[in-house]
Here is the input.
Amino acid sequence: MKRVFLTLCLIGAVTINVLAQYKPTADNLAQRQKFQDMKFGLFIHWGIYSILGDGEWVMHNKNIPYDSYKRLAAFFNPQEFNAKEWVAFAKQAGMKYITITSRHHDGFSMFGTKMSPYNIVDATPYHKDPLMELAKECEKEGIELHFYYSLLDWGRPDYAFGSPIVNGKPAKGDWDSYINFMKAQLTELITKYPGVKGIWFDGDWERTKVDWRYNEIYGLIHKLNPAILIGNNHHVAVKDGEDFQMFEKDLPGNNTTGFAPDQSIGTLPLETCETINNSWGFNITDRSFKSSKQIIHYLVGDAGRNANFLLNIGPMPNGKIQPEFTDTLAIVGAWIKKNGESIYGTRGSYIPPQPWGVLTVKAKTVYAHITSPQGEGYIFIPKLKEKVSKAVLLSNGSAVKYKQQPEGVFIYTTGLGMDGVDTIVKLTVE
Ligand code: GLC
Here is the structure.
């Protein structure tokens, strides 16, 4: 009898283990494909910190006591915010999705949550919910919406920022209460806001020894909507239950930031997030704006590495986007309008990045993006096994000379009229 019981327990344990392994649904897998097709997204960091014009870490960096910082809520009144303008701006730039901060490390909720009075509807003179307006507008305009959600909270007593971690929990605070709070907010975000397609977690790295209970949190999200894509900016290998892998301020495979020394590239869809200047949240002194060429090269570099590019802007506290950003992104948008077929719906990493640039591939078409011509009068595409039947310049359809050998293809660029940003040669393969 005892033995039978033990065996049953064992079978039970094994079953639970098997069940615990995340299996994405067909809808989720389809959403991953769609996500990869979109390629270009707009990241938005916006919160009460925007008032101080010093980035989203200002409370922490300037040692502002939480109770003093909280006063900012009373000054936050973005009368100029217009969801239509933001969505139109993203669309015009060629972006297909928006990822916006719903709650950042300062703990302030930029949506009408019932779980804490510290939110834009209840604690500011604005009294409206910009994320609801944005969600509705995105849905109307066919732009997908992801919510950034901070795991880290500098102010909540149950999170107890700064507390030592003992046995997977902060010694002070109330970890159960904090986890439940997050689950309740995530439930609101997923069930009340129309069309949400992704949750973007951040802040895990602040507590590496705590039990974040991702099985519960991710499980809840996928139970509420199995198609929602979960990503986590934890800077380590993908964890069970996640649907895409992200890289902060780096193309996959590069580690110029040093954030992710051990982050290998997995098999899930990939996304790089990067700032348009050097700040996430609005920063009034940061003038290190990336040029349209740098942004296009980033986008192309990501596409060639099979990743999406999520480009961040920090809108101003009045709800407007500063002209330096709109000007640059108008140029990027015009570029994509002409060259979008070589970006949207393509896949990358067909061959590793080359000194001259990258390849993107869609069915029988291969696009060679020559972003850094080496001045040799040709480029060499190694390991292209399919027979090339045609090569033209994407910009005007004119024929491009090439020579195919077993080890690869030479594309001759002399006299092509190179484009200063990206010369795209379109190859048809059999
Ligand atoms: C980092 C920053 C955070 C920002 C995020 C975006 O984690 O700490 O403020 O939101 O990067 O990738």
The chain is about 30% helix and 20% strand.
